[in-house]
Design brief:
The protein has one helix at about 1-20, and strands at about 25, 35, 45-50, 55-60, 65, 65-70, 70-75, 80, 90-95, 105, 110, 115, 120-125, 130. The chain is mostly beta strands. The longest helix has 17 residues, at about 1-20. The radius of gyration is 15 Å and the shape is globular.
């Protein structure tokens, strides 16, 4: 299942450049394209899938699935959701998922929901937390080591 999502993400990135920003789709294992609801109102700049198959999208969008969701959203296979209340104040440029499904985001933001997070933050599924005092400048990439439980190793 994880390989299917990785293929879908690669195709998603490619086709999001070619189609209107709200035309995001996914490709399933049975060779069927389906829409990701109403999509995002701007192209995603970062995509990652956690170990449960949840897709995370980051960028400079203000709407996901027709809902007001700022710059970071999750897709559970049926609908888009926000991560907490209030989103980052500027672009999310990178997403990394830890083995325990904690979501790390980095980018041009300095706060999330009015709380200070300098360019990097962690979502534990319930709330945001800082990584020390954050970074001194914008961040355009981040990664996590693969877990020994990752089927793609």
């Amino acid at each position: 299942m994880r390989t299917t999502f990785k293929i879908a993400i690669i195709l998603f990135i490619f086709f999001s450049q070619a189609f209107a920003s709200n035309a995001q789709s996914r490709f399933s294992a049975n060779a069927v394209w389906s829409n990701l609801s109403a999509g995002l109102n701007k192209k995603p700049e970062a995509l990652e899938v956690d170990n449960s198959g949840v897709l995370y999208a980051g960028g400079d969008f203000s709407s996901a699935g027709g809902n007001s969701i700022s710059r970071i959203a999750s897709w559970n296979g049926f609908s888009w959701s926000s991560l907490g209340t209030g989103g980052p104040n500027k672009k999310v440029k990178a997403i990394a998922i830890a083995a325990n499904n904690d979501v790390y985001i980095a980018g041009e933001f300095t706060n999330i929901g009015g709380v200070s997070y300098n360019y990097i933050a962690k979502w534990n599924g319930t709330s945001w937390s800082s990584l020390g005092s954050g970074l001194n400048n914008k961040c355009y990439g981040c990664t996590m080591p693969k877990s020994t439980n990752d089927k793609d190793q």
